[in-house]
Amino acid sequence: MPMVIYDVRDGIATLTLNNPSERNSMTAEMVRDIVASMDAAEADPDVGVVIVTGTPPAFCAGANLGNLAEATRESLLDIYEGFLRIARSPLPTIAAVNGAAVGAGMNLALGCDLRIAAESAKFDTRFLQLGLHPGGGNTWMQLRIAGLQATMATALFGEVLDGDAAVAAGLAWKCVPDDELLPTARAADAQTVVVARNDANLESVQPQFFECESRDDCHRFGHITLSGFCLVDPITDGR
């Protein structure tokens, strides 16, 4: 049984974590499948967007490291590669969060460009409650996405957010009924596919979200790249 089901339709690649008996907890095998799937998506000229989701009942219940007391730095870094590989992708990514996203599973959702939550979603940092440092860039990603208060509430005080609360906190874009989750994500992706295939624009816009720390940085970045846009054919409806 593959740990990740990879499917491509209409320019959208869907990665479905597929270890439901263990609530899609992240193993070394699953990480290898995630990396291979992302490599395939990026190498496919027909793919413009990626959706990440989980086989019910969970999105991802965190890292499966067996005895955490025996986990090594190397084994933790191997697990980190699962969500860092997605975070590094030049393709736009959407996390369709169904059920629990715990620890490393929450990092996986945070590593995507956009999060759409099902009503069943649970965003649960849980690191400190397990005696672990909130690793893998968890606090940095949360701060960038939702701000200090939401990050303190989840990472320090252990607040668990359902789909509606995640939207209110700024961690998710919208919350929908479970049976509407994938159709909603696919509809959002369909609007993005045309833009995503215009690589010159995409490659210059995405870094602006993450590499510009101030308004002046953003202005300079835009000025440098503006001339490049003039060399790109405009996008037309239906293309």
How does this model look, in words?
There is one protein chain. The protein is an alpha/beta fold. The protein folds into two domains: about 5-190, Alpha-Beta Complex (2-enoyl-CoA Hydratase, Chain A, domain 1); about 200-239. The protein is about 45% helix and about 15% strand. The protein contains nine helices and nine strands. The protein has helices at about 30-45, 75-85, 105-110, 140-145, 150-155, 165-170, 180-195, 200-210, 215-230, and strands spanning about 5-10, 10-15, 50-55, 95, 100, 115-120, 120-125, 160, 175. The strands form two sheets. It has a six-stranded mixed beta sheet with strand order 1-2-3-4-6-9. Strands 5-7-8 form a three-stranded mixed beta sheet. Helix 4 (about 140-145) runs antiparallel to helix 5 (about 150-155). The longest helix has 16 residues, at about 30-45. The termini are far apart. Mean pLDDT is about 80; it is low at about 215-239.
